[in-house]
Design a protein that fits this description.
CATH superfamily: Winged helix-like DNA-binding domain superfamily/Winged helix DNA-binding domain
Strand content: 15-25%
CATH class: Mainly Alpha
CATH architecture: Orthogonal Bundle
CATH topology: Arc Repressor Mutant, subunit A
Oligomer: single chain
Strand order of the largest sheet: 1-3-2
Mean pLDDT: 92
Number of strands: 3
Length: 88
């Protein structure tokens, strides 16, 4: 099995997807995305700066949730991928 590298776009979409229905902690995202700590922090900061996710204080944990704008971006991303890169 060959290891494939994900583009930043794919990583951003993955994080937006993970945070869409459930609030997620940085630790949870770190495990699920298999990114280095510095990479997940950079990704979260980028998405926060674009108002695609929001940071929430949930009990003693900081969690992230995809915003409505983030959901719209995710839909557009998937539409573009399906329209232009569909292999079928």
């Amino acid at each position: 099995m060959s290891a494939s590298r994900r583009s930043k776009f794919e990583i951003w979409a993955e994080v937006l997807e993970f945070c869409l229905r459930e609030k997620r902690t940085q630790t949870w995202l770190l495990r699920e995305t298999r990114l280095k700590t510095s990479s997940i922090k950079e990704t979260l900061q980028f998405l926060l700066s674009r108002n695609l996710i929001v940071q929430l204080n949930d009990d003693d944990n900081i969690k992230y949730r995809t915003t409505e704008r983030g959901e719209e971006v995710l839909k557009r991303f998937y539409t573009l991928v399906n329209d232009y890169f569909n292999l079928y």
